[in-house]
Amino acid sequence: MSESPRDRYLTLIDEIVQMTLKGNIRSKQQVYQMLAKEIAAGEGEIFERCLSDRMVAAQSEIDKPTDELKQAKATRSLRAMKTIEAEFSRYQVDNRVSAAIFAATNAIALAESNQQLTNLLQAIDPNQAQPLNLDQIQQLAKALQKQAESDPEAKRDLQRLSFGLTEGLKSWQKLQEHLVSWMYEQNRSIGFEGAPEQRGPWGLWANQVNSPFPKALFHTLALNQSVGELAEKQHPELSGFVELAVILQCLQRGLVNWFDQLVYDAKITEKLSISTYLTFAFIWSQLASGFSSSSHNQFANGCFQVTLQILRNFSQRNYFPLYGGIFASFSGSALRSTLDYLDEPLRRVEGTQEKARILTLLGYSMGTVGRYKEAISFHEQALEIARRESDRICEIANLNHISRIHVAQKNYPEAINYSQRALILSRQSGDRLGEANALANLGYSEVIQAQQLERAEPEVYESAINYLQQGLQLSERLGDNYGAGFALQQSKALCCSSLGIAHIVLSQPQVAINYLQSGFEAAQKSGDLYLQGLNLSYLAEANYSLQQTEKAIYIGSLGMYLLEQINSPQWRQTAGLVTILRGQVGNETFRNILQKYRPQIIAVIGVDGYDYIPQLLEKYQ
Fold first, then answer.
1. What is the rounded CA–CA span in Å between residue 284 and residue 405?
2. Between 530 and 514, whose confidence is greater?
3. Most buried in the list 52, 112, 137, 597, measured by CB within 10 Å?
4. Structure pTM?
């Protein structure tokens, strides 16, 4: 009968102690070498328990001696065991990677067939305390292949997983030299938007990979076609899915690291990093949608798992947009079909600080597209978790967002209540960004309440305008510090739009235009399409008040389009104004005005957006 690991390690500890007491072991390095030779992979915990038992027994002998000789021997033995303990700790650090690979291999190999992919994706999760680097992922692939050779029943699936990891690393080697080269090509956008065949790097990357599934995905993205439909129609091999997981993880991490290291313009690099995280989360969520529709549940679950990994990693960045939304880099059609799928992975984890922050982002996005009930639910969940996790900044952000949603629902007393709570809490905790947003929300709530009550007396707006000016001044005083520039621009855009609205109501359109123009520019810098559309819509109203009909048509068309693209119900208000203007000038003059401003319109929304404006007006009617 073979000796158990416990008996073997107890014997090993006794031998090292005896050799130390006899003088046969004279250095710590000798102890280390014996441990390295005798401790098997994955059995470190067993050895640690054995050593603890021996140390407890020796300490007991010292504390309650039966005779002096035994006490003295126990004292020397315990000293030797403490040396063993120190060298074992050093051994564990040196062999942590081997132990992690061994544990991951076992977790994958011993799992049910439908759970193996989940365990593999967990093993290469970049959120682990000690994430595997590329060399270590290659070691994992070799370990899986070795395990497959000794396990005939699991051989096929383990070989596919191993092959997928290996091929993914090979593909990454080809793609690595093209990671950022596309940014320097003529007529190619920096980021992930643009005309077909010019949408970021996708077309270039498609030419660098050979495997069918990754190549098809990159082509689909390059042509701005549906990723969900691709997944619904495709039936990739398990190895092809794993290869794609490795490729996309390497691309995403490589781009974020590259953007984060650029120091020439913090605002631009911050926005690009945010866009990268959101774009890759979007891709995986859309793949999940397609695989779910075609009942590829294993792949759908894997996609949700990777989506959550990306969002968790993103939430730990100092530029995570607590005051921003998913639509920072997505078109309206993408947003409308993505929000539910980004929510799905969060249902599978308990409350954590990361979850609170992700829920904040989703809540803001849903509120913007008019899904107020769901938005409130997200923000209330985030608020509860943030309080439990003592994440004061996240707590303040959600109070601010709930205030804005109550404004949208015309529940002005509650809007003012939440913004006041956010203002008090932000000042208590020193969260200046939260304070700037709270001032903006409080002033905005009071402005909209007065507007809805049709109270145009200047004194009614004096307090609200004071709050808004404080918020604007605070945003400008804080400056565009790295890590806060994105949210500060949003705060500035919100303050400016609110000030513009106040001055429109006060029949001061020229003053309103100055604020709204600044608000639009700030919203552009943050990438917030909602605030861009909002400022443009009120700019159109201000120009209409000044009888600047052509500018009102041009600006109103832009605002209407941007708001409709993110499915904001406010687009209809702007469409109503543009429709009135078209009726006043006539259809032919209206078309001529749009043609006159065609270059400016295309610069913001592209040719497709320009062509869609007449259709949008028909949709409104």
1. 29
2. 514
3. 137
4. 0.71
pLDDT for residue 574? 93
DSSP 223-238: TT--HHHHHHH----H
Cα separation of 521 and 519, whole Å? 5
Place of tokens 């564990």: 92
**C-alpha to C-alpha distance for 314 and 31, rounded to whole angstroms:** 43
Q: pLDDT by residue (tens digit) across 185-240?
A: 645 455 555 433 445 789 899 999 999 999 999 999 988 888 989 999 988 899 99
Distance CA 223, CA 210 (A): 19
Reduced DSSP (H G I as helix, E B as strand, rest coil) percent helix, strand, coil of the chain, to 5: 80, 0, 20
CB contact set of 393 (below 8 Å; sequence gap of 6+): 322, 429, 431, 433, 434
10 Å CB burial of residue 414 (0-12, 13-18, 19+) is middle
pLDDT in tens, 96-145: 778 788 889 999 998 888 899 999 999 999 988 788 999 999 999 999 99
Neighbours of 296 (CB within 10 A): 21
Name the packing angle between helices 549-565 and 332-343 (round to 10°).
Answer: 30
Bigger pLDDT: 42 or 216? 216
Helices then strands, each counted (H, E), the chain: 28, 0
CB 44 within 8 A of CB 12: no
How far apart, in whole angstroms, are the C-alpha atoms of residue 134 and residue 250? 9
Output DSSP code: residue 547: T
What region, left, alpha or beta, does residue 380 occupy, with left being phi > 0 and alpha being psi -120 to 50 degrees?
alpha
Q: Which long-range contacts (CB under 8 A, 24 or more apart) does 18-27 make?
A: 20/80, 20/83, 21/73, 21/76, 21/77, 21/80
pLDDT digits (tens, 9 = 90+) for 388-423: 989 999 999 999 999 989 988 889 999 999 999 999
Q: What angle do CA 339, 341, 342 make, to 5 degrees?
A: 65
Residue 241 has what pLDDT? 96
Cα gap 281→338, rounded to integer Å: 10
pLDDT at 584: 93
